[in-house]
Every structure is written in structure tokens, then in C-alpha cells.
Recover the amino acids of this structure.
């Protein structure tokens, strides 16, 4: 897999006719952990971003969409975890998995060229948009899906309402120049929060909101860049005023930053954002704190994390999708 060709071989290896398995030991599926809506939704995003999907990729998108429609209840909430024996183990809810499902559905409704996938995704998205989550990140993920729908259908009041509610849930960033962020701690998928505000500013033609999102994203990108290399906030997070750990760095952080910077590049036309996308691509190729590749050339899988001893060689769904997503941006560059 080259930077210009995002590979789906390992994602196909992790999938069956039900959905997408969450975990792998090295490159081999661990079926005992089953499936989750979180990862299936992520898979739908990258499958539907492909401009010319072949038969296998179209079938994968259909499978992931069917999983999400099965996971959703009549209220629009989603179940998250399904066992290998096809038994749901949690009640429907509006945690991160609801937000990511909405992101996947919005992307499918807006980007796929397959009419029946597009129509069913939009129907399921509209039902899901009846819900709201108390969790800012869940709302941010849902807001990304809403932004996708609005780019396709600018007069969608359902999507517009969800997007602006996502902005409200994220909150107003601090005025402190050293920490211009809405919360006192960076945790996971941080760049998604800034991306939603950038998208909302663009789609509502609100220049102040757009400026706020770009300021957040600039700061987040700058504090995660050292000597020209990307060094994302580790899995333990980073609280304002506290020491910052170096490891374990997660591919999801790199992919979220690439997504947000690609959106900023599209909105502003400024080449500086393209360069920041390239740093994310380079992180997977070895331009990171440990100077090691974060993908397996034999399988096409993405490694599960960057530790002080090198990569975690397991190749689960989240990390593989993060790799694919980032390489999709590389191809567009």
C-alpha cells in the first residue's frame, strides 16, 4: 500500500457478513470480542469516501449499513456491542457509538454513488437525529455526519439543528492563548471538536465561528508538533498545567487531526493545512517519536499504538481504519 493507494485488504480480513470485528492478535481476528457499532460506523465512513468503489468495497458498505440499521432502535438510539453469536449485550444508548453511527450514516448519505445505500443511510440518519447525547464527543461525531448531509442538502433543517447543537455541546473555548480549548483536558479524537466548529462556521457562513474553530485547530496542531514531527497526545490524555506523557500514542488521534486539517484546507484554501495533513501521513510512515512505521506492509493493517518500545503489533479495526482514512487524504494531496 502506497501513500496514494489506501488499502482495504485488512479491513476485509476483519469483516464478515455480519459486520466488522473489533480486535485482532497481530493480523488475526479475535472473534471472541465480537463487533461494535463504533468500529462499523468508522468502517462505513472510509468505505463511502472512496470515489470509485469496486464490488467488494460496495458490498462492505452495504454490510456495515445493515449492521447500523439493525443496531438502531425506534427512538433513534443505537446498541453498541454484538457478540460473535449475534446477541446484543447492551441496551440502546447515545454514547460515542451513537455519534459515530451518525457520522457514518451522514457520510454514506452524502458521498456514496450507490442509490440504495444513500437512501437508506439518510433515512436512518434522520431517525438518529431525533436523539441528542450529553457527551460532547458523541455530539461532535454526530455533528461531522450532519455536516456531510448539509454539504449535500444545504436546506436540511434536521442536519443543521444537529450540527449547531453539536457546537453548543462542545462549548466555548477558553480565551487563554496557552489553552484555547473548551475543556481543561485533551483526551481522545480531540481534533474532531475543532473540525465540527470549522464545518459549522463554513456551512452557516458564520465567520466568527469559523475563526474560533481554526484557532482551536491551529493550537492543537502546533502543540502536537515537535521538530517537524507529529507527536499526538497519548491515550492517558493531557490536563492543562500537568506534565504531558509521551506514550502511548494512538492512530485515532493522527487520523482525527488529518481529517480536521483536510477540512480546514478545503474551507480556507491555505496550503499550511495540506502540510499538516502530510505530517499525519508521515507519522504512519515512520516520522514519529520512535522513528518506526505504524503499518504492516504484508497485511495492510495499522498497528494499534505507538509505545516507548515501538509499535503495538496488533492490528485492530480502529487503527486500521485510522490508517486508511489518513491515506485517503494523502491520495487527494
Amino acid at each position: 500500500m502506497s501513500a496514494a493507494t489506501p488499502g482495504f485488504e485488512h479491513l476485509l480480513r476483519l469483516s464478515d457478513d455480519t459486520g466488522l470485528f473489533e480486535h485482532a492478535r497481530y493480523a488475526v481476528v479475535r472473534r471472541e470480542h465480537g463487533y461494535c457499532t463504533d468500529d462499523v460506523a468508522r468502517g462505513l465512513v472510509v468505505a463511502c469516501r472512496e470515489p470509485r468503489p469496486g464490488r467488494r468495497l460496495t458490498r462492505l458498505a452495504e454490510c456495515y449499513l445493515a449492521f447500523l440499521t439493525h443496531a438502531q432502535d425506534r427512538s433513534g438510539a443505537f446498541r453498541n456491542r454484538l457478540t460473535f453469536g449475534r446477541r446484543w449485550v447492551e441496551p440502546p444508548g447515545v454514547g460515542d457509538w451513537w455519534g459515530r453511527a451518525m457520522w457514518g450514516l451522514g457520510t454514506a448519505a452524502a458521498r456514496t454513488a450507490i442509490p440504495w445505500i444513500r437512501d437508506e443511510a439518510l433515512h436512518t440518519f434522520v431517525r438518529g437525529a431525533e436523539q441528542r447525547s450529553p457527551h460532547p464527543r458523541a455530539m461532535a461525531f454526530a455533528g461531522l455526519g450532519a455536516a456531510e448531509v448539509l454539504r449535500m442538502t444545504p436546506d436540511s433543517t434536521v442536519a443543521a439543528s444537529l450540527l449547531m447543537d453539536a457546537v453548543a455541546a462542545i462549548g466555548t473555548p477558553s480565551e487563554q492563548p496557552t489553552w484555547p480549548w473548551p475543556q481543561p483536558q485533551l483526551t481522545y479524537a480531540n481534533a474532531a471538536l475543532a473540525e465540527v466548529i470549522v464545518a459549522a462556521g463554513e456551512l452557516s457562513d458564520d465567520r466568527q465561528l469559523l475563526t474560533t474553530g481554526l484557532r482551536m485547530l491551529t493550537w492543537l496542531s502546533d502543540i502536537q508538533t515537535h521538530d517537524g514531527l507529529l507527536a499526538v497526545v497519548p491515550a492517558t490524555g493531557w490536563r492543562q498545567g500537568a506534565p504531558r506523557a509521551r506514550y502511548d500514542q494512538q492512530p485515532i488521534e493522527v487520523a482525527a487531526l488529518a481529517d480536521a486539517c483536510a477540512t480546514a484546507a478545503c474551507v480556507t484554501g491555505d496550503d499550511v493545512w495540506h502540510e499538516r495533513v502530510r505530517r499525519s501521513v508521515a507519522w504512519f510512515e515512520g516520522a514519529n517519536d520512535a522513528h518506526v512505521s505504524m503499518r504492516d506492509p504484508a497485511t495492510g493493517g495499522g498497528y494499534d499504538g505507538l509505545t516507548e518500545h515501538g509499535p503495538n503489533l496488533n492490528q485492530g479495526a480502529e487503527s486500521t481504519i485510522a490508517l486508511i482514512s489518513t491515506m485517503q487524504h494523502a491520495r487527494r494531496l
In short: The two ends are 16 Å apart (CA to CA). The chain has twelve helices and ten strands. Confidence is low (pLDDT under 50) at residues 1-5.
